[in-house]
Design goal:
Shape: globular
Oligomer: single chain
Radius of gyration: 18 Å
Largest sheet: 4 strands, antiparallel
InterPro entries: cNMP-bd_dom (IPR000595), cNMP-bd_dom_sf (IPR018490), RmlC-like_jellyroll (IPR014710), WH-like_DNA-bd_sf (IPR036388)
CATH architecture of one domain: Sandwich
Distance between the termini: 41 Å
Pfam family, one: cNMP_binding
CATH superfamily of one domain: Jelly Rolls
Order of helices and strands: HHEEEEEEHEEHHHHHH
Number of helices: 9
Strand order of the largest sheet: 1-8-3-6
Number of strands: 8
Protein name: cAMP-binding protein
Length: 193
Amino acid sequence: MFEVLFKAINEKVTLTQEEEELCKAFFIPKKLRKKQYLLQQDDVCKYTAFVEKGAMRAYTTDDKGSEHIVQFALEGWWISDIYSFLTGEPSIYNIEALEDVELLLLTRPKDEEMLQKVPKMERYFRILSQKSLVAMQRRLIGSLSQSAEEKYTRLVTTYPDIIQRVPQHMIASYLGITPETLSRIRKQMSTRK
């Protein structure tokens, strides 16, 4: 069950066999079925989760009942409400399985213990944090300055798997556009090809 995790880690830092075995002890394997929640809004986020298999989404719901998707996570990705995880404050997000998933969960205490016992993991998470910050800044700039078509094109180019595995209305929510706008964009793009 740890194949995808160690492949992802070893792309950033190289762990020895002993370090990998030590790391395994800190994770809790968890399976969820499609539409089950890892986290619900107003609960405290107790885990940061690595997706070994399947697809997840993190979203919030506004006062009008509209969903706003902030993250997708496929195999090899992490997902959590990091603010709630670190502070113990209630979460503003729901984290739901879009497919049957296999996860590896880390609690805050186990995360801290792992970072102390396997120092390379500290470097791994620092690299992930830096990449995440860059991605978040690019997404913010894109949402402020790009057209709906440009946002969609970037998503398709950067994450082609998401387009195949996630329903169109959720992709529209992630891009901050209506499903009708996304449908129109897809139609216009297909006629240009």
